[in-house]
Amino acid sequence: MRRILHGLALLVVVAAMAAGLVLWRFVATLPPLDLAQAAQRSTVVLDRDGRLLRPYATADGRWRLPLTAAEVDPRMLAMLVAYEDKRFADHPGLDPAATLRAAWQWLVAGRIVSGGSTLSMQVARLVEPRPERSLSAKLRQMVRAVQLERRLGKAGVLDLYLTLAPYGGPVEGLRAASLAYFGREPARLSFAEAALLVGLPQSPETRRPDRSPERAGRARDRVLDRVAAQGIITTAEARAAKAEPVPAGRRLFPMLAAHAADAALAAEPAAPVVRLTLDGRLQASLEALATERAAAIGPGISSAILAIDNATGAVIAQVGSPGYTDASRMGAIDMTGAIRSPGSALKPFIYALAFEGGIAHPETLLEDRPVRFAGSYAPENFDLGYQGVVTARRALQLSLNVPAVDLLEAVGAARFVARLRAAGARIDLPRDTAPGLPVALGGLGITLADTARLFSGLARGGGVPALLRRLGEVPGPETRIAEPVAASYVADILRGAPPPENALPNRIAYKTGTSYGYRDAVAVGFDRRVTIAVWVGRPDGNAVPGLVGRLVAAPILFDAFSRYGGEPEPVPLAREALVATTLSLPPPLRHIRRDVPKTLAASQGAALRIAYPPDGARIDLGLAEAAAAPLALKALGGVPPLTWMANGLPVADSARRQSAWVPDGTGFARISVMDAAGASDSVVVRLE
What we know:
With 688 residues, the protein is an alpha+beta fold.
């Protein structure tokens, strides 16, 4: 008997050594484990807080979104392990008990009945797909399972399963499946939903809910029964989960900020994850707003909304159209970047230049009456009526055309356009034409994004931000659209503009515009925190009767601000601002007349100009020392008495051609002079 036992033991040892030798030779013939194909993921575009905005399919058309176990509900992971591989935490990639069971079934039946697969072996099959079910294929899976666990560890293997598991069609991985079937991230699944997604990968094509909801339901219920038996959930929870309906179709993957996502991906095609500065919740809300309002206005209408964080210049919402896939509204066109006419929306920057150059003050009186400029240009107000004599404040709040053109003539159309361009805005003019007075009323082209940037500059004291669109992007240099005092004047005026119907007054500073022929309706508003710009129209440029900025775009703007949330914070008036009534202003600032300058200038002959300091000069006044010298001022020509102004404020004792001003610190200063005829000149110098 002892000899028989020794013989059997020897036979077992020899068999084990032979099996080991065969296994060693088999492993030696295998190529190195290659995870390059398995590492391919869908590119995902995220908002500033990491929320998914839009995923993209892989190059071969699969939806395989990145995911780690830490991003999954722990109860879902417990259900998965309990159902697929309850000894996952203890084995090295192979489960000996399950392997022996599968081997015995193979010997008895003469074919593979069950694979005894662990989660690690399933991952090995996903990493190296092999269609045949043979002994060598199973042996290869076992070897690869051990290799995977040695290389990645348990956490890495589980992450790979959650990313690669098949869920029917091109949907791979738990995150893609959770979004496709339930429209939710896998951290927010119910027991019924989690059980369905645990059961699908075993037979993804035959159990697809969108094709076989009955089979999917049965698979889900088997999972619920098993995890309830193992104590993962209670019997009552399993019963309630079985009562939930199985989804009968697939949902569309998220497509928030589609235009912004496309642009970011085009800029960096190889990036697996793109983080934008957008606020996903605000983006979703404003997209719904744009879609709802465009549909209410009529067929073929598009709309666009852009929101900028004034403190940083970050774009926090970018709605390029009411629907990216809506061909009837040309939704694929990003209207935030399209060149369109702004109508009267840029008038505030004419006033800012006038305030900055000492030509006008918010309380300066302007004439709103029929007039013909340069012999033939005769602008009319939108309502074809006239207000007579009004302050600059009131003229801008009512968006009167004649006073705006009057100020533009004084400022200079070429200088106005040059300032817009210097601030970083792309300005398109009719081909082969110089800037003329019609630019005051929309006779130029500009994008909604640039318009929003310029208005954000008013909220920032005149400094126009470079737009930031990607998280971590280095901000570009700030440009300037106006001096701080002038910018605060304009912000204060626009906050008093009459609001649209059913909106509260004095909430935000805003301006509207309507292009010629009712092709574009624009509204731009800001407070200290945020700037929001709205455009409505047809992308093909056709006219839309009744498309008026105040009636169509302004209500959307005010609704967008309410969705942004919080109480609007007004832009404070600059500390150096001159608060005065019309009568208390210096005489040249009280009233602007077109006819007086011509008469007086003809009698004097010489045009008013600043002789000292010269424009662009760098002057050392010893401002860093205790006894600083005043800046000498000298003018030639013009009609006395003169009024000198420094940084928008009157200089004491300034009625003569020569005066002096004591600055309060180093830096750039704008010196302006006006005469009794309303003529003016200004220079910018750097004082040290």
